[in-house]
Design a protein that fits this description.
It holds the Pfam family Acetyltransf_3. GO terms for molecular function: acyltransferase activity, transferring groups other than amino-acyl groups. Keywords: Transferase. This is RimJ/RimL family protein N-acetyltransferase. This protein has one domain: Gcn5-related N-acetyltransferase (GNAT) (Aminopeptidase, 3-Layer(aba) Sandwich). By secondary structure, the protein is of the alpha+beta class. The N and C termini lie far apart (50 Å). α3 crosses α4. It is built from 4 helices and 8 strands, in the order ββααβββαβαββ. Bound molecules: coenzyme A (COA). The site of coenzyme A has 21 residues, from β5, α3 and α4.
Length: 181
């Protein structure tokens, strides 16, 4: 199974295709973009974004993971991923997200992240999903918090200290009460 199509109230999350590159370049070249200072590549730079997306197209997955586009009314507004990386290897999964400048501040990233998390925990069965977030990236930290991630520590990424945020698979059973005897 590759990453399936996921639907929320306002979004369709579907696997990234080659045809999405120029659509996403348009979304991230939009007015109001802050230059994405907290991502490893400048998403507003068309060449850098194309290179990132092309690299992420190579994968052919069978484990329910992968890169996806966030569509609003059929328009590519952002993208994200659910992947396995060596920092915290499987069964733990990594998640990332980005929304184009013209679509920010409407709760869309939060909605997309919640859908990806539900898929990760409930369908893929990941016990924990982690995301690395720059400490000054307040919008992204808020998205993580609202989606249920908890800040658990620090990690070095490209020479910078970034925060490690973790979402644990919700427990379906009641915790056992400790009974004093
Ligand atoms: C981070 C990002 C995905 C947020 O997308 P979004 O669709 O605007 O996010 P949402 O609307 O779901 O939520 C943003 C939250 O941050 C809050 N916020 C926005 N700017 C803020 C700021 N400067 N300081 C504090 N909070 C801020 C918003 O109020 C909102 O919280 P609320 O819903 O409680 O009001 C988007 O800014 C982005 O793509 N940035 C560039 C790429 C990036 O940084 N990706 C994450 C890498 S870890």
């Amino acid at each position: 199974m590759s990453l399936p199509v996921l639907r929320t109230d306002r979004l369709v999350l579907r696997p990234l295709t080659a045809g999405d590159e120029e659509r996403l370049v348009t979304a991230f070249a939009g007015e109001g973009l802050d230059g994405s200072p907290y991502t490893s590549v400048d998403l507003a730079d068309p060449e850098a974004l194309r290179a990132l997306l092309t690299m992420n197209l190579v994968e052919q997955r069978t484990d329910g993971l992968g890169h996806c586009v966030f569509e609003v009314d059929g328009v590519a507004a952002g993208f994200g991923h659910l992947s396995a990386f060596r920092q915290f290897p499987p069964p733990f999964l990594s998640m990332g997200w980005a929304i184009g400048g013209g679509y920010r501040g409407k709760g869309l990233a939060t909605e997309a992240v919640q859908a990806l998390l539900q898929h990760a925990h409930d369908t893929v069965g990941a016990p924990a999903v982690w995301a690395l977030i720059h400490p000054d990236n307040l919008p992204s930290k808020r998205v993580a918090e609202r989606a249920g991630f908890v800040n658990v520590g620090w990690q070095e990424k490209l020479g910078q200290s970034v925060e490690v945020h973790v979402s644990l698979r919700p427990s379906r059973t009641q915790p056992r009460r400790l009974v004093r005897t």
